[in-house]
C-alpha cells in the first residue's frame, strides 16, 4: 500500500510540474484578458430601429418552409407546431418594402408551441448600411407572435457588435397571408 501511495504522489508531483509554464503560471487552454488589450473603450448603449419583412408566398419570397409539422388532422396543427422556416428577410428603414435596405435577417424560426402561436427565433441580423455595415447581431429566443410587443434577447454579435448583449423588441406592423412586416427596436450594449 505504501508503494502505491508513493507512486501516486510522484505521479501527481510530475503532472503538476509538467503543467507549469516557464513564467510559473499553470498551462491551460484559456487566459484571463483585459478589454483594454483588445482596444475596447467604454461600453455604450445603441438603439436601432428598422422593419423586418417576412414573405412566405407571392412575389419575392424571403422565407421557405423546410420542415412540415403534423398533418392538418392533428390537434396541434392549429398552432403550426413543428413547422420550420429558413429565412433571408430584408430589413428596411421604413415599413414600406421599397424604403432603404439596411440589412438582412438570416436564419430560421420554428413553430415551437403546441397550443398557441409561439416561435423559436434563431436569426442573425446582418447590417449593410452606415457605421454598422458588416456587423451582425444574433437573436435566440421565444416570440409569442400574437402579443402586441415581444422581447427577445441579443445573444452576441460581430464587427462593431462584438461582445454585444441586449434585447430586441418586436411589434407587428402589418400581417396577411403572404407577408408579415414587423417593427423592431433593438437596444444593445457593446464596445
CATH first level: which class? Mainly Beta
Terminus-to-terminus distance? 58 Å
Q: What structural category arises from helix and sheet content?
A: mainly beta
> Which geometry do the CA atoms define?
globular
CATH architecture: Beta Barrel
| Proportion of helical residues | under 10%
Quickly count the domains: 1
Strand proportion: over 45%
Number of helices: 1
Number of strands: 9
Rg, nearest Å: 24 Å
Helix-strand topology string = HEEEEEEEEE
- Fourth-tier CATH superfamily name: Allene oxide cyclase-like
In CATH terms, what is the fold-level topology?
AOC barrel-like
Family: Belongs to the plant dirigent protein family.
Signal peptide: 1-24
Pfam families: Dirigent
Keywords: Apoplast, Secreted, Signal
Summary?
The chain has one helix spanning 2-18, and strands at 44-55, 63-67, 84-92, 101-111, 118-127, 136-144, 150-158, 165-175, 179-190. By secondary structure, the protein is mainly beta. The mean pLDDT is 88.
Defining key terms:
191 residues; mainly beta; AOC barrel-like; 8-stranded antiparallel barrel; 9 strands; globular
How would you sum up this structure, described in words?
It is found in: Secreted, Extracellular space, Apoplast. By secondary structure, this protein is mainly beta. The chain contains one helix and nine strands, in the order αβββββββββ. It has one domain: AOC barrel-like, CATH 2.40.480. Strands 1-3-4-5-6-7-8-9 form an eight-stranded antiparallel β-barrel. The N and C termini lie far apart (58 Å).
Amino acid at each position: 500500500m505504501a508503494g502505491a501511495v508513493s507512486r501516486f504522489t510522484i505521479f501527481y508531483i510530475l503532472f503538476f510540474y509538467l503543467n507549469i509554464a516557464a513564467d510559473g503560471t499553470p498551462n491551460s487552454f484559456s487566459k484571463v484578458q483585459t478589454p483594454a488589450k483588445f482596444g475596447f473603450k467604454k461600453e455604450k448603449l445603441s438603439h436601432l430601429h428598422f422593419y423586418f419583412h417576412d414573405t412566405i408566398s407571392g412575389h419575392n419570397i424571403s422565407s421557405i418552409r423546410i420542415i412540415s409539422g403534423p398533418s392538418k388532422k392533428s390537434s396541434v396543427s392549429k398552432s403550426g407546431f413543428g413547422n420550420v422556416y429558413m429565412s433571408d428577410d430584408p430589413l428596411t428603414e421604413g415599413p414600406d418594402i421599397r424604403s432603404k435596405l439596411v440589412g438582412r435577417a438570416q436564419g430560421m424560426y420554428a413553430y415551437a408551441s403546441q397550443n398557441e402561436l409561439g416561435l423559436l427565433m434563431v436569426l442573425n441580423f446582418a447590417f449593410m448600411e452606415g457605421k454598422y455595415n458588416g456587423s451582425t447581431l444574433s437573436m435566440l429566443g421565444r416570440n409569442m407572435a400574437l402579443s402586441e410587443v415581444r422581447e427577445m434577447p441579443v445573444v452576441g454579435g460581430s464587427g462593431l457588435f462584438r461582445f454585444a448583449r441586449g434585447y430586441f423588441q418586436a411589434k407587428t406592423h402589418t400581417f396577411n397571408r403572404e407577408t408579415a412586416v414587423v417593427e423592431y427596436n433593438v437596444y444593445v450594449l457593446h464596445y
